[in-house]
Design the sequence.
């Protein structure tokens, strides 16, 4: 009798493991389903999943036109963004990959244009030198001359456009997905399959560098810890995250200070985090308080756990507040876990500096014209159970997972670059 096998919970790890075995379309639909059902959530996890999928798309796409490459990335990006529009980190990675493709295409076109110009100049110099030799020896037979490259010759087909405009070279317009005609420039030589493969290889290598940056972002942010955390300070943290944990542990290696940790009701935590004492895993932007506090205690940090209701009373003794942001918006405001706004307001009343740790992948060009669109809501039954008589039927229970923190409540952002 076969032994029963346990079910595997869909997560970032399972998606990355299946990415190499499944077909491309299956992988796209898989990630769309995971985002829609919030089985992958958090800025870091969503950014890593998006980058890995786009890397797979670029490897499998066999095209010679950069416009088709951009269109394909846009199609995949639109599906992912529509699956979970409130995870703005997905859109940030898509924009970076599109910008990388445009930059590589411009550099490749400029390099070919400069090589064509060098060949033209060399041909002219060779022609003039040969003519001088013929004039100095009139008795000798005129040698055969290679045909010179004319300046007014028609433009050769561009590497990235099979139908260029006459006398122009198509260039990408920043911020748009169309081409525009610029002043006439020397056209590159006809493209070959090796050139196309080199171009796609450079783009894939750039996406892999983005993935490496995502994996190293927390360690790079932690490198600035000693510049902001000093001895004998009292640091207030809210909710356990890997970014804050590494930031504090880096400073704890050389400094002695106290951490005051608080959190509100664990409505934004996964159910498995409420009972376990594990550390924050690689798939999580947030983890259990027990694992977070245990890691700090082992490092020699004095940790004090206080209820959320006591934050305002203790704020006068706090040296600085360190928070982890979910996303940073264009006006400098912040989307963070629910309760962060109350903490920053208390810090503002006591003139306590607020430091927000945020990787570059969390910096979004979106402007918060409608704050309600950015705030996500969770299951209200985690606050008020439906088994509590007629009470839930008489009120509307709201369970916001995030807060919008205005820019004037944040004193400093620390990024990985």
Sequence:
């Amino acid at each position: 009798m076969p032994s029963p096998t346990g079910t595997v919970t869909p997560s970032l790890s399972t998606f990355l493991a299946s990415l190499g075995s499944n077909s491309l379309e299956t992988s796209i639909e898989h990630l769309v389903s995971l985002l829609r059902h919030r089985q992958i959530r958090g800025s870091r996890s969503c950014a890593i999943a998006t980058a890995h999928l786009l890397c797979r798309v670029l490897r499998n796409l066999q095209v010679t036109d950069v416009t088709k490459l951009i269109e394909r990335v846009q199609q995949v990006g639109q599906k992912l963004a529509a699956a979970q529009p409130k995870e703005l980190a997905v859109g940030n990675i898509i924009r970076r990959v599109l910008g990388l493709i445009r930059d590589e295409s411009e550099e490749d076109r400029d390099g070919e244009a400069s090589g064509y110009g060098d060949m033209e100049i060399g041909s002219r110099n060779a022609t003039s030198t040969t003519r001088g030799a013929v004039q100095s020896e009139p008795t000798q037979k005129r040698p055969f001359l290679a045909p010179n490259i004319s300046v007014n010759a028609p433009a050769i087909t561009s590497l990235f456009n099979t139908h260029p405009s006459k006398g122009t070279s198509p260039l990408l317009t920043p911020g748009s997905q169309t081409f525009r005609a610029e002043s006439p420039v020397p056209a590159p030589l006809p493209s070959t399959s090796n050139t196309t493969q080199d171009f796609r290889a450079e783009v894939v290598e750039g996406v892999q560098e983005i993935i490496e940056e995502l994996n190293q972002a927390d360690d790079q942010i932690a490198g600035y810890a000693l510049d902001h955390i000093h001895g004998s300070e009292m640091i207030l943290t809210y909710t356990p995250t890997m970014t804050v944990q590494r930031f504090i542990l880096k400073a704890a290696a050389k400094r002695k200070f106290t951490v005051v940790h608080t959190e509100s009701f664990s409505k934004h935590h996964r159910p498995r985090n409420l009972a376990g004492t594990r550390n924050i895993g690689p798939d999580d932007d947030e983890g259990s308080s027990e694992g977070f506090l245990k890691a700090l205690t082992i490092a020699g940090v004095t940790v004090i756990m206080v209820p959320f209701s006591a934050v305002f009373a203790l704020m006068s003794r706090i040296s600085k507040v360190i928070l982890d942001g979910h996303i940073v918006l264009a006006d400098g405001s912040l989307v963070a876990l629910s309760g962060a706004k109350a903490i920053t307001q208390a810090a503002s009343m006591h003139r306590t500096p607020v430091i927000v740790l945020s990787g570059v992948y969390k910096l979004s060009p979106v402007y918060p014209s409608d704050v309600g669109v950015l705030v996500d809501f969770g299951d209200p039954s985690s606050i008020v159970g439906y088994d509590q008589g007629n009470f839930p039927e008489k009120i509307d229970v709201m369970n916001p997972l995030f807060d919008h923190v205005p820019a004037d409540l944040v004193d400093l952002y620390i990024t990985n670059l």
